[in-house]
Amino acid sequence: MKTIIEGLNKKFENRVRLGIMSALMVNERLDFNALKDLLGVTDGNLASHLKALEKNQLIEVTKQFVGRKPNTTYGVTDFGSESFKKHLSALEKLLGGL
User: Fold this and answer.
1) Model confidence, pTM
2) pLDDT, tens digit, for every residue of 72-90?
3) CATH code given to domain 10-96
4) What percent of the chain has pLDDT over 70?
5) How many Å apart are CA 57 and CA 60, to the nearest integer?
6) What are the backbone angles phi and psi of residue 75, rounded to the nearest 5°?
7) Cα–Cα distance between 97 and 49 in angstroms, integer?
């Protein structure tokens, strides 16, 4: 028997992680400062959530230098995209069933 919450992914339950994934799904890549400004979170808060998403292979990190300044950008992996779409689909089913 399927439950009403089947398909929801615990890795996306936090509002910051949900925001990161949402932003990266509609933008090919975003840098740290763009994500921080978009989500209105602190450096430490954002960094910890990005690290968790990276650890679970949901996002990829690219580090490079722009001029003499380091620049870190983030993008969604294929696995992350598929996982997030499944999560959103499960949310839609949950909301549709209420």
Assistant:
1) 0.88
2) 999 999 999 999 999 999 9
3) 1.10.10.10
4) 94
5) 7
6) -145, 160
7) 30
